[in-house]
Every structure is written in C-alpha cells, then in structure tokens.
Amino acid sequence: MSRTPRLPSALLRAAACTGLAALTLTACGSGAGTGTAGSGSGSVKVGLITKTDTNPFFVKMKEGAEKAAKEDGVQLMTAAGKFDGDNAGQVTAIENMVAAGVKGILITPSDSKAIVPAIEKAKAKGVLVIALDTPTEPQSAVDALFATDNLRAGELIGEYAKAAMKGKAAKIATLDLAPGVSVGVQRHNGFLKGFGVKDGDASVVCSQDTGGDQAKGQTAMENCLQKEPGINVVYTINEPAALGAYTALKAKGREKDVLIVSVDGGCTGTRAVKDGRIAATSQQYPLKMAAEGVKAVVTYAKGGKKASGYTDTGVTLVTDRAQPGLTSKDTNYGLDNCWG
After folding, report:
1. CA distance linking residue 262 with residue 233, whole number of Å
2. pLDDT tens readout for residues 203-256
3. What sections of the protein cross the membrane (predicted)?
C-alpha cells in the first residue's frame, strides 16, 4: 500500500460543549463558546465519535480528522467515551451532534449492535453516518465503513507464523479480545486461516480473552503456560496483549523460543518488533480512516453524493525477519507509519 504520511501533532482543542455526562464533546478550530468552531457560522460541521480519547489508536484517528477538517475548512466536533464499551455515551454524542447540525458523523462503535437505533435516527434526519475501524451489526446500518480488513490482518500474521515455524509442530495460544466483538473475531479467524488450521484443531492448545490489555495479556499467557508449558506460537489481538505475553514468557525463560505475532502497528508495538520481543505485526492506519471519512462528509455536504459500502484503508505485514514468499516491510517503514 502507499506510504501513510506522518502528520503534525493535534490542533489545540477549543471549548467543551455542555450537556454530556458520559462524553467529552469538543469543537476543534478557532471559534469558542458555541460548541462548534471553524471557518464561520455557515461552515459544514462534521462529528467524530471514538471509543475513548486515551487509546493512541483513537488519538491518531482524531489527529487525522483534525488535519482533514482544517484542510477543507470545515468544523469538527469530537466526542469520546469514558471507557471502551460506553454505548450510552456514544448515543448521547450522536444526539447532541445531530442537534448541533452536523452533516455527517464518523463513529467507532463501542457496541456494534446497540448503537444502531441511534444511528438510524441520525440518518433519518439526513445525517451521513460512516463507521471507522469497527463495523456495525449489521454493517448496512451505516452509509459506509472505512476500516482495516481485520480478517486479512489476522491472515497475514497467520501466514507469517506458519512460514516462520518451517514445518515444526505448533502448539498455539490465542490471546483474544472478548466474545462477540467483531474486530477480535475477525483477527482470530484470520490468523487461523493464515496458519491453515481451524478452531478446535489440536494445535490450538489454549485460548484466553485479554480485552486487548497488557496486564490481562500477561495473566492470560501465564494461564496458558500452566495449561501447556510447551506453547511455541502466540497470536495476540493487539500489541499490548503481545507485550503482556512476552513478560510472562520471559519470567519462565521462554522469551527466546516462542514466536509472538500481533496486529495494530502502533509505535510501541513496532519498536517491540524491532527489538525482537514481537516477531511480526500487521500495521493498520487510523489516521487514514478518519481523514478519508472527513473528506467523504465534505463531498456529501457540497454535492449530496453519499459514500457507500466498504473502503479498505490498508494493512501491511511489518517484520525484520522476512519469510520467503511473503510480502512485508521492515520496522523502518513501520516506524515511519506508526501511531501513538
């Protein structure tokens, strides 16, 4: 895929809007005191709602939206949940943004199903709604989806792990996200597909949920090692979980002989690939998701043309230990394009 450009740090945030108990709603731009800001009272307004405002992935997503909004001279309103899973807060944010007159809303759904009624109400009022990163259930609930192909992201590291094992019998641990979360399910299934096995295969000796959290990843790995000390391949939902797994393996003196693969491509994770703690990761591009989303809303506002369907924002296998027959980029590329 094309090289994702690095952008400057996020613009200064303007005054916070009132009336949001669960979310922080902020208008980004030069205005103040009205809940919206930008190039003027007639400017197009775009909303961005992320799961949280602390996860580096969503920080980078917001940065991409801010830069695109500035380039197109539109007003950007942002909101973020207090925690991953704050559906009630996202519903409130949608309602407030619709009331503020946004032409479009970009959202990373915390609950892919529960958010749908609020999205349908926004669409009924003529608001373009685009999901970023995480699809709704059903995906058709939104006008469009701009996201990583998470099945493919998992498949890439599964193919890599299979090649890196060079025919050696695998004892696999999967450190997953949480039951029913589409991103986690797709990455897990993709990894198994890439490795050439299915759920229930004898080579998959342990599966634990981590919530994508480093401490929980460590605990999950400890549990798996108790169950099967001979684990030699570890798939992780993301790099924090991978680093937790590495900590647990190091405590057992196993960090050198267990292959860890992951997904995300954040800067911390990419550095862990560079120093050998993680063998490979599939890098995704949150900045691109948001930037393209803003531009889609601007197109709709100017001419009425709605974005539709799924837009793949790309994924790249990043490793310094390339395997024959697999396309990958090294960690210099990964660090040039990482986030966080």
Report:
1. 11
2. 999 999 999 999 999 999 999 999 999 999 999 999 999 999 999 999 999 999
3. none
